[in-house]
Write a structure and sequence with these properties.
The structure is a homotetramer of 322-residue chains.
Chain A (H helix, E strand, L loop, with lengths): L6 E2 L24 E4 L8 H7 L2 H26 L12 H16 L12 H30 L5 E3 L3 E5 L6 E9 L5 E15 L6 E9 L6 E4 L4 E7 L10 H6 L3 E10 L4 E10 L3 E3 L1 E3 L3 E3 L5 E4 L6 E3 L9
Parallel strand pairs in A: 4-12
Antiparallel strand pairs in A: 1-7, 3-5, 4-5, 5-9, 6-7, 6-8, 6-10, 10-11, 13-16, 14-15
Helix pairs in contact in A: 1-4, 2-3, 2-4
Chain lengths: 322, 322, 322, 322
């Protein structure tokens, strides 16, 4: 604990800005940085195909396969469909469709044979297309597996962080809750929480755009198992950089809690990382989390994954949580 | 050792319950938590297909492939099998079977050609099915490999933990034994053992459902190689939370030892984790483990993997183990 | 920090040489070591196929596939193309091309059937080729995926390291800047910097070819996130082995900074390593880095990846950086 | 260093034996343990197929594929080859070969179509075989990739460990040398060395079969880069358990040095482990290692991988190595 709560150097997100910036980590888990000049799609194709969402991915793969087939079909049509065993009708559309079916039968290596290449040039094109089909199939298998097997945790963070009394004490604390949306168990879960706070000018009480960073001490910074949810708690005692600061001031000073989690995911057999942030607008006062599990009569514990956000008003005059 | 044996915060399994719960970790290695609202099969398909047992997995894959083929066959039959080069018999069953064979020949890309599409609409359907077949084949290859290559250890824990004298001393100890059921070697094996014990009410001698947790110190918490079995020993000396507690009280206080192991598995080239628990009902007194290996005349060591549970009564008046 | 800046044992690159050597790590990221007697291509095929650049890789795969097909085609031609359902023309070229098309149709498992084996010997060869094709296809799929999924970071190092005043102090520092060329985020980035410096002979002021190594302390040796660039700084204070040495002497003593980086790459879900070196010829004086990001009016941060090298002359008489 | 050289608990290989055993780690890198009752081939197929050598692997895969084809061929023959479009000859062999070719064409999905199923029962069998072929192909692709991508280091250990003076001192040392047989670079290489020594009975000078274990301190226990070879050195000073023991006694006491290495392998992007042992019979006195690299005139370093064993007699009266 000794080295916690103290002011630290920039954890890598930039400390000194000349004007107001947006939050550091966006709600969708990306950083508020637009990168200009990164590797393009061709230079970094695997990375791109692995990380785009499923819909664009399917669109890209389908487009590549379809346009390849359309192109080969055009070549067969141009050579003349009599060379692939078809009977020319003289109508472009009918002939092109025949050429397209031959192309698909070659690309997928179905090769019924009712149409087959008859001539050296068309034989060469068909050979190329068959290899092309195999290659694209191998490639797609690899990318598909890469997308599936990429170790990704599915940790859900509570919508807000609560500024709430710490159980059984007079201290306040800031708390948020996480849960694993998957049905597997995460082991050796560790959390780190940093606070970014804009500098205060002691003379005129204004705030600069220069950020100070603090490493917040946690009630518990790791747990061995995570079958339930985990409420991560920073106690706002005298050593805390949050001590004595009102929520209004936190908003003005663009306070942002940066969080990283990592743990061992049973399904992937690998460590996975998550990160998230709460800005001061997402801090809530006078609330406390309601436990999101209960014990059934038979002794089973029932965990309500979607209740990770469940909270209630703190009744007045109460200072102890059961 | 200094930080061992002490009371610790909840390792993540929940400390405060209002009624009696079942054991924390079930004998089958799952946690006694029913998770409501996790990602469903569609949202988390890879995870699901990777973790279900082999029989349901094979059933799912077979069902998907068969129903796809039955569906396409129905479409071909509906269009009319004369469009796939068959001769309609007028009997549904015979015609449908012909359509089904054509469907399989297309899906698997065998494409003998005795039947082949004849017409633009049926040609389109057959093209779709051929791509469909390739896609499902790529998908299955990926999932199959994912299932195989998932790093999983095959550690067997002894059925019971023994409360038994520690060799050559007057101290008691609690011991259990583990063995690798695979024929490979695990390196850098590390063990952590936690004890969960329900709170004792000192006034009336009753026990609450609130759990206390302790980090148990181990005689040895890691070994470099594990070609043999490993007996993991916690010595119940004065610093131990188990000191002076009878087995009867342990049962009443729902004592449970939570164990995590991790080590480097040569076959997968990755760290793997195992966890397990012993509840007080699985603690045995007045027994000791019998060594499960012996030396052959030629100097070979013979290890009997299935003897990991082998134990014998401690003869009266003996306090030293050879 | 206590154990930094001190002289250390050789970090593995050889300390004692009898004559002048080239730099330790080449600008292309390889070590200046020619290894004689390593495993050859056959013994270590996977490693070789995974690490050669894309152009040679494609050339190798294409050559293997083409020569396999040419060989089988020759066998079919030698047996006689009448046994594969072709009509011999008596011209080698025409017959060989027919045999080649049959070979490709078998290898890719297209199997149109216009040509098909007719005879037991040719049937055996065609069966072998079909298996051969499947095997090579499986093999290529695996290698292709292996190439794609190999965890590799794309860290760009600034061209030069700057000997420049440390902000707001009288101390000098040596600085270089790194950036991630990918659009993903690297987490828990750690840096280690070693200095190699040839021994000075205090009597005659000459330098030997024996290298001393130092572990350089860094202003910050790790950052939690790397959405921006990272300027890695060693302060040349009195404890630094670089203290009081001129750039000219550094060149003469073959000074070389050896750098290793490692961090967790989101895309691969794995730790990746990078290494690099700066020799004294790549140290620049009287320059400072210009920040390579700016804040847009809407609060977005714009990062210019290719400006990682951007630097400017330090105006005379200035000793503080904004 | 403080916690090194001391006597430690059994690192997992068994301390107490009632009779003489063979060495702990065999020269081929396996442990001298015969495991009885491990998971069998069916229960642990992936592990088995991934770890058997290439020749048995190829034999197994070929056998499975061939016997599958022979079996299906027999079924087709039994049904009658007229149902697969063949003309029965009345000779078993000729008909069976035709059935076999049809089987291969179906299994590999070549499907020329000169033979094709004609009848519902044979159509069903052929459909099964086509799926079977796809499945085995997917399976083989996965296993093949699993074999290739398994992270394995190719570290070569010197044949012997040398008991030799430590450079520039009066102390003796025990040294061995390792080299990477691959052409890639290993990063962050770490070594641990344990000594196993049979107990000495101080009364009668005999030795028991009970082993003591020591953690040997190393001159350097890790290196940052390993482009060259690495000589791992334990100095036999007064704190060493080897101090004052003759080689003859070491042989009698079955001394064995157990070594584990691990480092990050660039090609696999993963940590890999190696282990090895030297028994006292493999300790050599009065020799020293000759450096296995030299500097070319152009400053290139030439490393002779196969010279890792190169050693020479120590000339009498010399106590300093250059």
């Amino acid at each position: 604990m000794a080295d916690k709560n103290k002011k630290i150097l920039d954890p890598g997100v930039g400390a000194s800005y000349r004007q107001r910036t947006k939050r550091i980590i966006n709600p969708d888990g990306t950083f508020n940085v637009r990168r200009i000049g990164t590797l393009n799609v061709i230079q970094d194709a695997y990375h791109w195909l692995i990380t785009i969402p499923w819909l664009p991915f399917i669109a890209v793969v389908t487009s590549v396969i379809l346009s390849t087939n359309f192109l080969y079909a055009y070549i067969y049509w141009f050579i003349g469909i009599e060379y692939i065993g078809g009977a020319p009708t003289g109508f472009f559309w009918d002939d092109y469709v025949s050429a397209l079916f031959f192309s698909v039968q070659t690309f997928t290596t179905v090769g019924y044979g009712a149409m087959s290449p008859d001539g050296q040039f068309v034989g060469l094109i068909a050979s190329l297309e068959a290899f092309n089909g195999l290659l694209l199939s191998a490639f797609s298998t690899g990318i598909l597996y890469g997308r599936f097997s990429r170790p990704m945790s599915k940790i859900k963070f509570s919508e807000v962080a609560l500024l709430t009394p710490y159980k059984g004490t007079d201290d306040y604390s800031i708390q948020f809750r996480i849960i694993n949306k998957r049905s597997n168990t995460v082991l050796h879960m560790k959390a780190s929480v940093f606070l970014s706070l804009n500098d205060k000018n002691d003379r005129d009480g204004t705030y600069s755009h220069r950020r100070d960073f603090y490493d917040l001490s946690l009630e518990r910074s790791s747990i061995m198992f995570m079958p339930l949810s985990w409420t991560i708690v920073h106690i706002i005692d005298k050593n805390s950089p949050l001590y004595g600061i009102t929520l209004k001031e936190l908003v003005e000073r663009q306070a942002e809690m940066l969080i990283t989690l990592n743990g061992y995911d049973e399904t992937f057999g690998q460590d996975t990382y998550s990160y998230h942030s709460y800005v001061a607008d997402e801090f809530e006062e006078n609330k406390r989390f309601i436990r999101n599990f209960n014990v059934a009569d038979n002794g089973d514990i029932l965990l309500h994954v979607n209740d990770v956000d469940l909270r209630e008003d703190i009744p007045p005059k109460e200072d102890k949580e059961s």
